[in-house]
Amino acid sequence: MRGFILALATIAFASSASAQNAILAPPAPPPVAPITAEQQRTIDRLQAAALESDLAWQIVEDLVTEVGPRMAGSEQEARARDWAVSMLREQRFTNIRVEPFTLPYWDATREEASIVSPSQQSMVIAALGGSPATPEGGLEAEVIRFANLLELEAATPAQVRGRIVFIDERMQRMQDGSGYGAAVAKRSRCAPLAQERGAVACLIRSVGTDPHRFAHQGGASRQAAGVSLPAAALSPADADLLARSVTRGATRVRLNIEVDMRENAESGNVIAEIRGRTNPEEIVLIAAHLDSWDSGQGAIDDGAGVAIITAAARLIRDLPRRPRRTIRILLAGAEENGVHGGAAYARDHANEAHIVAAESDFGAGRIYSFRSRFSEPALPYARAFSRALAPLGVLAGDNTAGGGADISAIRQASGVPLVDLRQDGTDYFDYHHTPDDTLDKIDPEALRQNVAAWVTFLYLAADTDWDFRATE
Amino acid sequence: MRGFILALATIAFASSASAQNAILAPPAPPPVAPITAEQQRTIDRLQAAALESDLAWQIVEDLVTEVGPRMAGSEQEARARDWAVSMLREQRFTNIRVEPFTLPYWDATREEASIVSPSQQSMVIAALGGSPATPEGGLEAEVIRFANLLELEAATPAQVRGRIVFIDERMQRMQDGSGYGAAVAKRSRCAPLAQERGAVACLIRSVGTDPHRFAHQGGASRQAAGVSLPAAALSPADADLLARSVTRGATRVRLNIEVDMRENAESGNVIAEIRGRTNPEEIVLIAAHLDSWDSGQGAIDDGAGVAIITAAARLIRDLPRRPRRTIRILLAGAEENGVHGGAAYARDHANEAHIVAAESDFGAGRIYSFRSRFSEPALPYARAFSRALAPLGVLAGDNTAGGGADISAIRQASGVPLVDLRQDGTDYFDYHHTPDDTLDKIDPEALRQNVAAWVTFLYLAADTDWDFRATE
What we know:
Two copies of one chain form a homodimer.
Chain A: H1 2-16, H2 19-24, H3 37-52, H4 55-66, H5 75-90, E1 94-117, E2 121-123, E3 125-127, E4 139-146, H6 149-153, H7 157-160, E5 164-167, H8 179-196, E6 201-205, E7 231-234, H9 236-248, E8 252-274, E9 279-289, H10 299-317, E10 325-332, H11 340-349, E11 353-359, E12 367-373, H12 379-389, E13 395-396, H13 405-414, E14 418-423, H14 428-431, H15 444-463
Parallel strand pairs in A: 4-5, 5-6, 6-7, 9-10, 9-11, 12-13
Antiparallel strand pairs in A: 1-2, 1-8, 3-7, 4-8, 8-10, 12-14
Helix pairs in contact in A: 3-15, 4-10, 10-15, 11-13
């Protein structure tokens, strides 16, 4: 808020005083925390090493080859934890452990939909995470299409009762993925709104930006209690088909979803550290998540994140002298269907001294911007990060960092300052939560640039005495 | 052959005589059949009308919306015939009829493959057309990878016996789709070669150029008699995965294919005509095929072809005066799994006077080149076609036209001259025989350009007395 008032004052000055004066004597640049020549040499070496290293690629290749998809709470996720523990040992981190927790398990075992009248065509769908099964043998009903959620909200029970609601809203492609927030609302809100109006099921156009015949999986876990409507996402071509069919006349769809649900499935967070040299109790937390949806390989979501933060930390581990603070790697379990790992971490670790936290969970696109969420007095440190990152083509961003799903609970519990190393996500939602999330979608060069940016952040965050929590 | 000797003579002349002479006095251009001013005006009007028309789009949109996938010999293909008859009536053609035939029916009802050791991962496959089922419950064996068919040919039974053969050969992307010929060999040859060496099944990297998680369907129907090895195509990402896994160590795969096979399924060719004004017995034959593989919608293969030739013929139908010759539309049945419709057509119609034949079965990419397969004396007519097509950006090609699958039997039986309106197929094999063959992959503008080229060919072929079969 203070920053905002200062900015206003500057604008007022520039417009009331002579414009020429303002040009000749611009306001002093904001302060930047100094980086010593020795630190700069270390940063240069770390960046060069990262840009040459294939370690991140090896890690994500191993994960998708040796484990593959790993649904939260599944046997496959348990294998991923075993894999992670042994990989982190091989990378010579310390204090490696699994912190177990339980969660309600959900997976779809049958996902079928077809137009049965007037044409007969099967459609490609993905049941939304948490969706109940359809009645034994499936259900069949006429479809009512809404261009967006607002239209559904305006609909009456008389229109909707007994029907399958179809929300045909499209997602906008954006570099920063910000089309997701608007588009994803239908994933959680379609079912409750449709149920209130007496619908029998809910279909949505997939939350994604690609034109391919894949349905995008995704949780609908923030549904209000008591919502029991089956819900699924349609591939874009099938959403097109259904829209055309509905436009031509009454269209009936058969939907058959079977699910495996149970309480108290096992999951866990995998944690590893580089213990701080002088201030081991001070923690720089870096996170990614181990679990994935099961239609793809979990390569970009979030094998890439696991690989990026681990490879960056390994470069720090290889320094002749460990940094002052502890670097903690959190490979969270069970992110996709409710962020259970992040919640468990916050429950167990809220009282520790988290100095700063960051997460890599947006694929492997190049990092184009650095953003902080620091207190005002700590902003000179954010500017120092930006300056160190500039040689990698990373722009200085603002102070509105969001962190990531797995660190949001610890942020809420402890107020830990956040940074975002923002990735180009122009094509992220082409692959996100689909069968097409496979290793070949990762660009090895962009992956290396990510590691270079992360190691820069990690080194500066862990080897300084800068306190990002400073309040004055 | 005569053309070849003439060309040699020209080269000899150019190099033995003075180079300057050759530049000042080039050899006379080859003769071009004249187009009258009135014909040219008609061509101009037809091209303009085609470039404005959405009829082709409407036809393919209707086909994929009202029928969808239509496997050879299936109920859905029968619906496609009904749809075609009523569509052709609506377009006011004459002599509309179905010419039935039977074929052996094949479709897969289960297509599952997974790595069971060392990792556990399911893979995306498509059983190859004609593949037998695996034994009840599936089969499981270690995989042996070959980079290409040649490597398999060089392998001994001792290496292969009891294993699943995996051919990992890639297809080259080419504008004219010519990478297909080389790549598709593995589709029919893997199973017999593998069976000879004692393998239990055959997996191939999909014949396709895309990087998406789709397996490409396709027939293996030219297998030698007695071949009974189950065979399937892997998606590119799964071929990558299997290759990585095999490189790391012994890899076992479970394969479960169930099929529905029966003799004497019904299919049929749908035929319609514009009867010739003065020479109705002379037939200009234009073909596309009605059936499709069943994982996609059959939009580019071959809904687009059906739409292009029908829309072009409709523009001819709308001329104030019917052309001299009969234009016959052949919407062939059962092309995909053995070209049964083309064979049936040749059987029934070999003795009719086919003047020229052409087929549209390569998607909806823009036409970039015209190619003939005429006798030498008829080449001036080919040059006239090229001249008339030039305003549409169509290059003059050579005299090596291939026709298309559905007209190859009538070509063989009758020697009918062929033309190819060659389409840009750079991305055709991204979608070909996959779930991704959907309406959105057709560019409406390229579709219109196709219609404009086809109507140019149709008008000139049907309203002249040019005899493309001329022998002197």
